Amino acid sequence: NKYNQNIIIIRPTNGFGCPNINKDKRSYLVPTCFVKSIIQNKKIILNSSGKQIRNFVDIRSIAKTSLDFVNNFPTGVNICNMGSKYNSSILEVAKLVALLAEENFQIKSDINIESKFPLKENNFRYFSNFIDNFDSYETTKNKFKNVILRLLGIYQSNV
User: Fold this and answer.
1) pTM of the full predicted structure?
2) Beta strand 53-58 with 7-12: parallel, antiparallel or unpaired?
3) Which of 120, 78, 90, 129 is nearest to 98 (CA)?
4) Exposure of 21 by Cβ count < 10 A (0-12 exposed, 13-18 middle, 19+ buried)?
5) Measured between alpha carbons, how far is residue 7 from residues 3, 10, 63, 131 in Å?
6) Can you tell me whether residue 105 is helix, strand or coil?
7) Percent of the chain whose predicted confidence (pLDDT) is above 70
8) Model confidence over 124-151: pLDDT tens digits?
9) DSSP 134
10) Is 32 exposed, middle or buried (0-12, 13-18, 19+ CB in 10 A)?
C-alpha cells in the first residue's frame, strides 16, 4: 500500500491432481501416499485416527482462478483463499482409495489406524472468499475420485 503496488496473495488449500510420479517427489501427500501404500503394501497406515477434516481443491481450478487474476488483475493488496466445497476426513479419503483400488484394480487392502488421536472430528470446514468460482461438492469429489483412479493406474504400471 505504501508504494501503491497491486499485489495478490494466493493461498490454496490441499491441492490435488495427478503428478508426474517420475519427476514429482511429492508422493507423501494425501491421496498419493495412500495410493502408493496400497500398491506397494496392500495397506494404508494412518498415524492418527483419521478424523481430521481437510479441504481439497483441484489444481486445475487453482490454475484457472490464478489465470483469471492475471488477466484481470485487481488493484491494491488482495488475499485469495482458494478452497472448494469438498471437505473430507483423512479416514474417508483412505477408505475411498481402498474402495477404488478394490473395485477397479482388484486390490484388496487394509487400513491400519495407529492412533486414537484426535479423539473427535475437528470442526474445520473451509469456506473461501472465492469458493463460488469453483465446482460443486459432487463435481470436485468426482474429480478427486478420477485423480485417485489415474494415480492407481500409474502406480500399478510402475511396480
Assistant:
1) 0.86
2) unpaired
3) 90
4) middle
5) 11, 10, 17, 20
6) helix
7) 87
8) 665 555 555 667 888 889 999 999 999 9
9) S
10) buried
